[in-house]
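Example record used in the benchmark description.
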Amino acid sequence: MPLPRTRGTALRQQLAELRGPDVPAKALDARALAALAANPGCRRRAILDGAGVNKATLASALGSPSAFGQSQFALTRGNAFEAKVKADGGAELLRLVHEKLDRAAEPPAHARVPELTAIGPEGRTARTALALREATEARGEWTLLDHPMLALDVAGSPAFLEPDAVVVHPDGSWTVVEIKSFPMLDGSADPAKVGAAARQAAVYVLALEEVAARMEPSPEVRHRVLLVCPKDFSNLPTASAVDVRKQRAVTGRQLARLTRIQDIADTLPEGTCFDPARPAEELTAAVESVPATYAPECLAACELAFHCRDRSRAAGAVTSLGRSVRAELGALTTVPDVLAAARGEAGDPADPTVVALRRAAALRAEALDTGAPGTGALGTGVSGADVLGAAACR
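Model output (structure tokens):
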């Protein structure tokens, strides 16, 4: 008699069916997790990432190809730089860790570099946990874990993550190392790129904290990570310590808010499949069966952003104008509703949002009547909701 399937096994089978027959799963990495955490209300991204769907391939099949992602040249350059940083047993990398994060410790004359190979992500995760335990107990030594494998529970499903490196200090504490190919010019780098790297590192910190919590006593997971980049216009490595406490706290809260993947999967129509080989009409219906929460920020973080933007605009959703505008508008969720409220055709006159919209519309009309286009709603210090109201009178 066949053994009954566990809930976890049933979920994995269900997610495989959503991907399509013989379609390999795309691993959920820290970059994707950070983007998912930035938009926790998007069920579409949650289920697609949870099922391991390749969203770039899916977007092309839907007729909205993505421009999101790294070029092959950037990947090659990044891999070459990472190899240089880790050469000679990670001597240069450990020197930077000592210089930027732990000057009180003995300089790393040499370091242990444990072997982390194992069968499958679960095996590598277990091997990494064992190596971290052994390195923590071996006080007084530096240990470099090259591409360890960590697991993080995301909406009830495990995500396997692979940081560039984790360093165990002589005092037993752990540090995440992020190696990027963008340059540091005169000691500073592009703030947007540093911010993205910090959010990615914060995901690794969260995963490491889960490993540490299973140890007794629990070692310290440092919240200052090491960001290693090329110096100026050379290929020489330099580094900066980045405090990721804020990013770690925000990402942790947002991941906790994610609806469980099982709950989303259970609401889908029977036979739903995101296999890009399916006819375009069926594929579109499958994608649209899962609600999305589009915002302009998605364009820099999600391969399906162009498709979702087109659908959001067609539906007149105010989210297509940005999260800050959406937050200003309360119960008004579509642009036609906003315009009707601004014109006095709909809306509760006691609603502060409706009052603000009508006030902005009146100011804009007055400015146009007096021929002073520079003194409309934009010059009154009113909110984004007021600006939308002004647009109703153009």
